[in-house]
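$ ./design --mode recover --in tokens.txt
reading tokens...
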């Protein structure tokens, strides 16, 4: 249970329970209780989908978090290895892997085939995490040596050719806790485990030890950022000579470890190094590692930093030297296909890689223009070149590259200010990225047009670009972003791009309305689907007629006055910030929802949307003409459309017969004729007429027979007899929620409504100044004579409760009377409010007496009822009681909650008379003579009055 009072005490979480039956079935435990020291371990997660007789029904392909602590405790318990509840072990796995937490290296290329690097053939992905808990966790699990000596990894997973290992195996076999699993099934289960859990599994029995040491599980050895010594690494290489993938990034002294890897692991396929220094001898030794296909070196110094480093290898296909420090590098790899020198500091690079297809030299600031030209032209089959942020590159280098690399398809020359592309012909390009290239002007468009196979063109922030004229039949994506700094502006665009799919012209502030012709039918982009014109502040009259456009964004076009869209397949439109839009036409469009509430000046609206289901005009206060033809419309919000008249509402209900929710809040121009037209909406269940000038509700009673929710907030012109048809004539028989907040109905009308309209489940009477005492059915003196309610001791379902037949049975579940200033007394007997589950009387400043007996009441709020003096509760299901800022004393609170045995939250913040809640140790408690209250209070989380305003539930 929790008591709110601005002090926060953490809640305890229940430990997982219920594993005993599972242990008994698997281990054959004959009813004896075995210790379970690790409640975090979920045995069931291991064999999820695998039954005990060996049938497999695993239907998911994911890693399982397999913790073997519990199973190991079972083994040790059976072997008598418990000493006073603690294990006295001294274990050394001969790994000593303590140090920093694992972190990823800066670059790990996605091109590497993860399946071939996986340590197991049955797992999609694998990441070994040798964290600094390995030593402790494995020592916690391993069986104890009789001599108290160390148990090394070799003793745990090695062969049985020495005497110590044989002894260990025999001890494990003597435990006789082998699972009834076939080797194939065990292999399948273990394929989901990482190396930490495999070590734990090895301590269970000899079968599990043999299975966990299978080489399939140890082909990928990841020591990233681990403090592993040369001896430890050498032992691992000796133990698993068939390992194919090694990650030594961030290990101390990477050179000797790398040397050991390439010299002893003859099947090494992928190697990752970094954060250290690699000597020249390592690169010389690479030639002995014949099957190496992939090598990544990140953030390292190659050689002594002032010498040439040769990298010669006949089988290498992927090489990444990222952020490396070296004077000169010479690469001769006849099979190399992908090379990255990104962010490296070498001023010279010599390449002899005839099959190289992908070259990344981005941000190699020290590479000269001549060095880049020499490197790229030495790769005749090059297909992708990233030379972004190489500021020295010019058009002459690009011309040479275009002549030598005839197959170049992808070029990223962003942030290269010396490139203008004049006289450059890159005929085979499909992707061209030229972000922030100051040399790109309108004259560059002629050169770009020769790349007739272009599919993606990016020209963001090319600030000297004033016009674009392109004839690119295959172009699918073009992005133009203009940032003006007292420079000429892009004013015209001419495109002939029959395959262009996306255009982004964000912040092209000088584009004129003629741009609409370019992207309409017949404008040269017949299959255009997405168009972004955000912050194009010169657009005033926009009209698009397109049979292909699916998405249109005009956000921030503040000068836009008129919008006309004839786009039958348009599904998305953004008009954020178009706050000067006056006329809008969507005829026809494929929109499913539309929000024009952000366009407060719209006064003329036409919508024809066959698929539209939701329309929001909230805030269109000057909208006077509206034609809405949306046959599938179900939700219509016209809040604050003060000029919306009856004729418009009638036309809308006639053309949109499926409307279920209609909000006409603050629509004072809607009258009886408009409300009578609601008979055209047979599915109408939600109607909001709040803040209107309605005098009677007869049109609603006649037109909305299926109405379930009716909101009439602040309808101050309704008479006291306006609601009589609800409870006298059974009008609106389906109505279950009624909101009369801030109304002027008299006390007697409210009492009759609550007493006789028994089918209501939710009623709101917030701020009703004419509401006085809330006494249901009986006065306080008569309350003691109400017949008792029989509740079965074996349950609490409604079928076991017996109500007196002579008392009315209300369906009310939720009653809100917030801020009713004249309520002084509330009396609700059990039978009258039997189904009431939530009662809110907050901010009722004159409320003095509350006497409530409600069996199903769960939430009661009396916060800021500063006059409250008497509180009597008989609410066995009450879970939350809010008494914030009340003057009620502590004894009254204790007495009130004495029968609320399910109370979880009690808010007594800022209650001046509730103070004695802390003992000398400042621990929460209630000093009371009532055993019931003491038992109840033991569940509380207390939050009592303190300076901090923080409230936590």
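writing sequence...
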């Amino acid at each position: 249970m929790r008591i709110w009072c601005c002090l926060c005490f953490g809640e305890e979480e229940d430990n997982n329970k219920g594993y005993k039956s599972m242990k008994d079935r698997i281990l054959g435990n004959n009813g004896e209780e075995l210790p379970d020291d690790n409640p975090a371990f979920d045995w069931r997660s291991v064999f999820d989908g695998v039954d005990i007789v060996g049938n497999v029904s695993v239907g998911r392909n994911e890693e399982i978090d397999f913790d073997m602590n519990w199973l190991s405790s079972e083994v040790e318990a059976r072997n008598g290895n418990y000493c006073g509840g603690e294990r006295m072990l001294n274990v050394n796995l001969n790994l000593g892997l303590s140090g920093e937490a694992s972190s990823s290296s800066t670059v790990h290329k996605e091109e590497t085939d993860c399946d071939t690097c996986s340590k197991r053939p049955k797992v999609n992905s694998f990441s070994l995490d040798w964290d600094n808990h390995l030593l402790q966790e494995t020592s916690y699990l391993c069986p104890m040596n009789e001599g108290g000596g160390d148990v090394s990894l070799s003793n745990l997973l090695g062969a049985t050719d020495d005497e110590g290992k044989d002894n260990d195996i025999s001890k494990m076999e003597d435990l006789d806790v082998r699972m009834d699993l076939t080797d194939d099934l065990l292999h399948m289960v273990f394929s989901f485990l990482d190396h930490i859990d495999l070590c734990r599994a090895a301590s269970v029995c000899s079968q599990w030890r043999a299975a966990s040491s299978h080489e399939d599980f140890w082909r990928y050895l990841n020591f990233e950022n681990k403090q592993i010594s040369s001896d430890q690494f050498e032992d691992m290489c000796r133990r698993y000579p068939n390992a194919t993938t090694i990650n030594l990034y961030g290990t101390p002294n990477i050179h000797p470890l790398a040397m050991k890897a390439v010299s002893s692991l003859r099947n090494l396929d992928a190697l990752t190094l970094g954060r250290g220094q690699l000597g020249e001898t390592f690169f010389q030794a690479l030639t002995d590692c014949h099957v190496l296909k992939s090598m990544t070196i990140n953030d390292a110094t190659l050689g002594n930093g002032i010498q040439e480093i040769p990298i010669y290898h006949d089988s290498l296909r992927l090489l990444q030297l990222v952020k490396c420090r070296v004077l000169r590098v010479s690469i001769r790899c006849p099979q190399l296909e992908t090379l990255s020198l990104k962010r490296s500091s070498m001023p010279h690079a010599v390449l002899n890689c005839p099959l190289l297809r992908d070259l990344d030299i981005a941000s190699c600031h020290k590479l000269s223009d001549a060095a880049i030209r020499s490197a790229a032209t030495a790769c005749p089959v090059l297909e992708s070149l990233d030379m972004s942020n190489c500021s020295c590159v010019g058009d002459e280098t690009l011309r040479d590259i275009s002549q030598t690399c005839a197959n170049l398809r992808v070029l990223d020359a962003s942030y290269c200010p010396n490139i203008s592309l004049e006289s450059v012909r890159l005929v085979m390009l499909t992707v061209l990225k030229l972000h922030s290239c100051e040399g790109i002007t309108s004259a560059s468009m002629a050169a770009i047009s020769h790349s007739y196979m272009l599919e993606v063109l990016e020209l963001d922030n090319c600030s000297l670009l004033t016009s674009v004229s392109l004839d690119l039949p295959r172009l699918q994506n073009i992005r133009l972003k203009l940032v003006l700094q007292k420079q000429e502006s892009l004013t015209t665009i001419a495109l002939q791009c029959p395959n262009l799919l996306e255009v982004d012209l964000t912040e092209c502030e000088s584009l004129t309305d003629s741009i609409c012709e370019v992207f309409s039918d017949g404008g040269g982009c017949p299959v255009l689907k997405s168009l972004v014109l955000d912050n194009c502040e010169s657009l005033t009259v926009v009209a698009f007629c397109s049979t292909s456009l699916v998405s249109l964004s005009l956000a921030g076009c503040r000068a836009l006055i008129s919008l006309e869209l004839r786009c039958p397949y348009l599904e998305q439109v953004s008009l954020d910030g178009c706050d000067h839009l006056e006329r809008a036409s969507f005829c026809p469009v494929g929109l499913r929802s539309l929000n024009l509430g952000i366009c407060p000046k719209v006064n003329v609206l036409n919508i024809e949307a066959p698929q539209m289901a939701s329309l929001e005009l909230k805030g269109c206060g000057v909208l006077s003409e509206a034609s809405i033809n949306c046959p599938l419309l179900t939700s219509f919000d016209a809040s604050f459309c003060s000029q919306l008249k009856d004729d418009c509402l009638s036309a809308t209900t006639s053309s949109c017969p499926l409307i279920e929710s209609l909000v006409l809040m603050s629509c004072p121009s809607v009258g009886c004729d408009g409300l009578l037209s609601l008979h055209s909406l047979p599915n109408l269940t939600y109607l909001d007429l709040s803040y209107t000038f309605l005098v009677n509700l007869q049109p609603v009673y006649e037109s909305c027979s299926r109405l379930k929710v009716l909101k009439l907030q602040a309808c101050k012109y309704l008479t006291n007899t306006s609601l009589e048809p609800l409870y006298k004539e059974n009008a609106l028989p389906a109505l279950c929620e009624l909101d009369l907040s801030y109304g002027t109905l008299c006390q007697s009308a409210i009492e009759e409504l609550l007493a006789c309209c028994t089918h209501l489940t939710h009623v709101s009477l917030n701020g009703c100044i004419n509401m006085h005492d809330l006494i249901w059915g009986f006065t306080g003196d008569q309350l003691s004579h109400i017949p008792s309610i029989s509740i079965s001791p074996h349950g609490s379902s409604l079928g076991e409760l017996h109500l007196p037949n002579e008392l009315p049975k209300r369906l009310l579940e939720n009653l809100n009377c917030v801020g009713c200033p004249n309520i002084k007394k509330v009396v609700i007997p059990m039978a009258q409010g039997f189904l009431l589950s939530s009662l809110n009387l907050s901010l009722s400043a004159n409320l003095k007496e509350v006497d409530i007996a409600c069996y199903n009441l769960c939430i009661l709020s009396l916060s800021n009822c500063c006059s409250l003096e008497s509180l009597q509760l008989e609410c066995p299901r009450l879970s939350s009681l809010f008494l914030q800022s009340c003057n009620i004393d502590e004894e009254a609170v204790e007495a009130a909650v004495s029968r609320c045995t399910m109370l979880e939250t009690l808010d007594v913040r800022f209650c001046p008379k509730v103070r004695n809640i802390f003992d000398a140790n400042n621990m929460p408690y209630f000093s009371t003579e009532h055993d019931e209250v003491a038992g109840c209070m033991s569940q509380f989380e207390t939050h009592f009055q303190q300076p901090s305003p923080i409230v936590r539930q």
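exit 0
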